[in-house]
Design brief:
This protein is an all-alpha fold and 66 residues long. It contains 1 helix and no strands. The chain is rod-shaped, with a radius of gyration of 29 Å.
């Protein structure tokens, strides 16, 4: 009887530990995906700003020419 109770408690702890590990793994995956999406959005905005600056410089140079 003691052994069965001990095994049940031990299995319960192992199950809880496994559930926590799974939850943390999913949280890590979600955070990584969110970080990648934010990085892509930031890089696209940065690239658009650089492109606009180049267009303004070229436009100003063309205006001075002609």
């Amino acid at each position: 009887m003691k052994t069965q109770l001990y095994k049940g408690i031990r299995d319960s702890f192992a199950s809880e530990h496994g559930a926590r590990m799974t939850a943390m793994h999913k949280a890590t995956d979600n955070a990584t995906e969110l970080r990648d999406q934010l990085k892509l959005t930031y890089n696209k905005a940065r690239q658009a700003a650089i492109t606009n600056e180049i267009l303004e410089i070229v436009g100003g140079a063309e205006a001075l020419k002609g």
